[in-house]
Write a structure and sequence with these properties.
By secondary structure, the chain is of the alpha/beta class. A hairpin with a 2-residue loop joins strand 14 and strand 15. The longest helix is centred in the middle third of the chain and has 16 residues, at 302-317.
């Protein structure tokens, strides 16, 4: 695709330098990936500003540079290097628009289902994918744990990839025969324009509690970021929201799409009834249009009834057969690190990705409901470094008030001192039922080896993650593997 054709998809303030109408070989935002005739888009990242690398990409043979900050680089520099200088208002929007056009507008060709909310995105996406494939439709998935093209797994680094990576992935999914794609849509991706310009046929909202306030600064900004997905839906699209969440009405307040609700509230079109769960799974019924659908899943907890009902609604509104929807929910496998139960003799360990106050509360609430024998509950958890500090005291309070014993430990301290993070967690605690063991493996070991028989142990925070990050260095670490080691599985 030649440069002039590509720039027709873009709102440009000015083009200077040396404009060549050669074919663009790739669109890059990482200067290290630029090669001859690449188009480089300089975006401002969290820690690094891509504008700093413009001289380097010119030396690498970029055909042009899209930038929003002229950076003191004269037009003559671009002309001397035989490259175009393309000035825009917003580089992130430009990257999304260019990528959408460069990769053939893939979201226009597929049935794109976006899922957003604080908790449940991953589980709902797994339910939806399995239901659609049970109905014989090859389905793509982009999300926190991994990306999938049908059965092919592709490692995931971000819940929602950068716009150029995302459009390339959607094109690959379309080329490989995916009719449908289910996508976790993070608040970061909405605020940072990663999903800008994508055409969503369905958008689903799970719930909203405080998270990522280190990035969004306050809850209002966080809510408004989630709301973007629904504000941009067309009248032909469908929005599905949790009727029981207090923020649903605000999320859809400016939405043009047709709206459906799920939950236990009286105004829920897809109404959840009779939720029951034990260590083997969850059962409930869904009432829709005066029809009652008995539903079972091997996933545990009231929250998974809501996740399954959300997936049921998406699938039903897509016209899938009832029996395939129910079968797809029942056969959805355990989602890695999402209330994942590991049994070792008469002790049970639950690995869960609960890393926010509400998700930790919901996990412990589910454990309490399951704990028919009044067994001791031990929670092992920590809080990540370089992230929302406001949640640390609240998580300490919830863990100690809802557990018999708590071990506070390290969880991806990143650039922070892990002992200082632990001290911040302790500030929210008034009870004396906790101890601190900074080394995460030692903390897990102690919870298992020093506990009584029949104890239920919640290891919270990391879930599916298989690393610890300290001072910019990642080393392999899996809560599940460590738990199995000391359970002697």
């Amino acid at each position: 695709m030649n440069l002039s054709e590509l720039l027709n998809s873009l709102s440009v303030i000015q083009v200077a330098g040396n404009f060549s109408d050669s074919d663009v070989t790739s669109i890059e935002y990482d200067s290290r990936k630029v090669s001859r005739n690449s188009l480089f888009v300089a975006i401002k990242g969290f820690t690094v500003d891509g504008h700093k690398f413009i001289p380097d990409v010119l030396n690498r043979g970029a055909i042009g540079v899209v930038l929003e900050n002229e950076s003191g680089l004269p037009d003559e520099l671009f002309g001397h290097r035989g490259a175009a200088k393309i000035l825009v208002n917003n580089s992130r929007v430009a990257l999304a628009e260019l990528s959408h056009y460069f990769f053939g507008s893939p979201s226009d060709k597929i049935n794109l289902i976006g899922i957003t909310g604080t908790n449940g995105k991953t589980t709902v996406s797994y339910f939806v994918k399995n239901i659609f494939e049970t109905a014989g439709r090859k389905t793509g998935l982009t999300g926190t744990i991994a990306n999938y093209i049908g059965d092919k797994k592709i490692d995931s680094k971000l819940t929602t990839p950068e716009s150029s990576d995302l459009n390339e992935l959607l094109k690959e999914m379309y080329d490989e025969g995916c009719e449908d794609v289910v996508m976790e849509v993070s608040s970061h991706s909405l605020a940072l324009k990663r999903v800008y310009g994508l055409k969503y046929n369905y958008a689903l909202f799970t719930n909203l509690t405080a998270e990522h306030l280190d990035f969004h600064h306050d809850f209002e900004n966080y809510l408004n970021a989630k709301k973007i997905l629904f504000d941009t839906l067309s009248a032909e699209s469908i929005a599905i929201v949790n009727a029981d969440d207090p923020y649903s009405e605000r999320i859809i307040s400016d939405c043009s799409a047709k709206i459906f609700k799920y939950g236990s509230s009286s105004d829920a079109g897809f109404k959840i009834l009779d939720i029951r769960y034990d260590m083997n799974g969850t059962s409930f019924t869904i009432n829709y249009n005066d029809n009652v659908y008995p539903v079972e899943t091997t996933l545990i907890g009231e929250f998974n009834a809501y996740n399954a009902c959300a997936a049921f609604a998406v699938s039903k509104l897509n016209g899938l057969p009832d029996e395939k929807i129910v079968e797809g929910i029942k056969t959805t496998p355990q989602v890695p690190g999402r209330f994942e139960v590991i049994s070792g003799g008469i002790k049970k360990v639950i690995i869960d990705y609960s890393h926010t106050p509400d998700s930790l509360k919901q996990a412990l609430k589910a454990i309490r409901a399951l704990n028919k024998n009044n067994s001791k509950v031990i929670t092992v958890f920590g809080c990540g470094g370089n992230r929302d500090k406001l949640k640390r005291q609240e998580m300490g309070r919830i863990a100690t008030e809802m557990s018999d014993e708590v071990i506070i430990t390290s969880d991806n301290p990143r650039d922070e001192n892990p002992f200082e993070i632990i001290e911040e967690i302790k500030k929210g605690i008034s009870k004396k039922n906790y101890k601190a063991i900074e080394n995460r493996e030692e903390a897990i070991k102690a919870s298992i080896e020093e506990s009584d028989d029949n104890t239920i142990i919640l290891i919270a925070g990391k879930g599916h993650e298989d690393y610890q990050e300290v001072k910019g260095v990642r080393t392999h670490f899996s809560d599940k593997e460590v738990a199995e080691k000391y359970l002697r599985i």
